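Q: Sequence in, structure out?
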Amino acid sequence: MKELVFATQNKHKLEEIQQAINGHFDILSLFDLNYLEEIPETGETLVENALQKANFIYQKYGKDCFADDTGLEIESLNGQPGVYSARYAGNGRSFEDNMNKVLENLHGKTNRKACFKTVIALIYKGENYFFEGVVNGVITTEKKGKEGFGYDPIFLPDGYSKTFAELSLEEKNKMSHRALASQKLIHFLRQNK
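A: Exactly. Output:
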């Protein structure tokens, strides 16, 4: 089976992608490579960050590799937190701190439109490829649900009555931004084995 490295240390992302890829490829994590350090992430866009992470691991190990970067973009906050979603409340802050800052910044605003965007950068047979997934929705006024991670408890996707954190992993994997980008990645890999 073809091996691919997923350049992430986020166990939640790894579980999501492994379930989405469903045995079509052997997905190695950074833990499998015994790489436990932070990967540089200095880009100003999701594309730049995803490619930087994939390229860093590809250069270090010489294995086909992919990495993702995800951002929550909120319309009335001029696209924030965007590329800074993971550290919106500051370096070393928690998902809880980030959510609280979003809710605080949206207090009193009626426009709560937002989207989750994932970009996957793949380095495959020496070439770079990009896959994007977007889910539109709104930011709720309070946290709901215990599943998922990140901003999931405050993101209500369009057409749903439950936040991402109220959906099961299986439900979320059918329609999430990462699932959509992953489906494009999987389709590409199947066509280009």
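The chain has one domain: 3-191.
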